[in-house]
Amino acid sequence: MGSSLLFCFQTIRFKMAQLLSTCFLVLISMQLVKSSAVFELKVQSFTTTTSSSVCKQSRDCQVFFRVCLNYTQDVISYRLACSNGTGLTETFSSDQSSISTSAPITVPFNLNWLGTVSVIIEARNAESSNDQPTEKLNNMIGHFATNINLNIGQKWSLGEHLGEQSELRFSYRVVCDEFYYGDDCSDFCRSRDDPFGHFTCDDTGNRICLPEWKGDYCAEPICLSGCSEEHGYCEAPGQCKCFIGWQGPRCDECVLYPGCLHGTCEQPFQCTCKKGWGGLFCDKDLNV
């Protein structure tokens, strides 16, 4: 009776540990699951239509661009602060090759504001390559404000602004932030190989378990092939540890009642006597 209770207690404890581990991973995921996206804008070309140089001093003419987002359909003056995010490029030469190969400007984007937004793009000069991008109004050489429609997708949309003194062509898009996937960027997946999971992520954010791991979060090790799922378990891949009352390489052999000599078992701690034997321990020869 005591052995059976111990066996039940061990089984329940193991199952509870598995359940608690799963719940913990679910709670972590719930905290991480939130929509996260990025607005990207890349300047393709910028030219002035006047004979004057872009910079006051043309010897070392450097420029940079600033993007401002406002979640409103009203185009807001550049003199007002950006209400919903801003981004700057690095400082680079004003020649078209440098401008067209510059990295995109990235601004964190609130997905609640998908649709029409106001975008302000400013071209500014930095008289020297040693200057850091600053937002002083006196260094502005171009200002462009427009409304654009934003949706999540990898495809770039094209835009242009043709002014009296300058021309700007650009491309833009909204994409999921790093480690976020799905139509609303709410599926979080980040490859890991630690006690909280063993997986990589595919292009759509699905978890792909590493070899020898399984489960929704790839936190369950795959036991030794043939290990009894009912009577065995493992704490690391390739193991086969037996619950109390079971034994053998694959935990499929029951443990006899202590002291049983000529008996068998179908369940732990039984002692079913073989033919010709009797007694509590099957140690009495019935043929004598």
Which key phrases capture this entry?
2 helices; 5-stranded antiparallel sheet; Laminin; disordered N terminus; 2 domains; 37% strand; mainly beta; 288 residues; 4-stranded antiparallel sheet; Immunoglobulin-like; 24 strands; rod-shaped
How would you characterize the overall build of this protein?
It is a single chain. This protein is mostly beta strands. It has 2 domains: 2-33 and 186-221, Laminin (Ribbon), CATH 2.10.25.140; 37-180, Immunoglobulin-like, CATH 2.60.40. The protein has 2 helices and 24 strands. It has helices at 2-32, 96-100, and strands at 37-48, 62-70, 86-88, 92-93, 105-109, 115-126, 140-150, 157-162, 166-176, 180-181, 187-188, 192-194, 197-201, 207-209, 213-214, 220-221, 232-233, 241-242, 246-247, 253-254, 263-264, 272-273, 277-278, 284-285. The strands form 9 sheets. Strands 2, 3, 4, 6 and 7 form a 5-stranded antiparallel β-sheet that branches. Strands 5-1-9-8 form a 4-stranded antiparallel β-sheet. Strands 12-13-14 form a 3-stranded antiparallel β-sheet, with no helix packed on it. Residues 1-7 and 28-33 have low confidence and may be disordered.
Number of helices: 2
Low-confidence segments, given as residue ranges, are 1-7, 28-33
Distance between the termini: 32 Å
Would you state the CATH class of the largest domain?
Mainly Beta
| CATH architecture label of the largest domain | Sandwich
The main sheet comes to: 5 strands, antiparallel
Can you give the mean pLDDT?
A: 81
Question: Outline, from the CA principal axes?
Answer: rod-shaped
Strand content: 35-45%
Membrane topology: Single-pass type I membrane protein
Domain DSL: 174-218
Function: Putative Notch ligand involved in the mediation of Notch signaling.
Disulfide bonds: 176-185, 189-201, 209-218
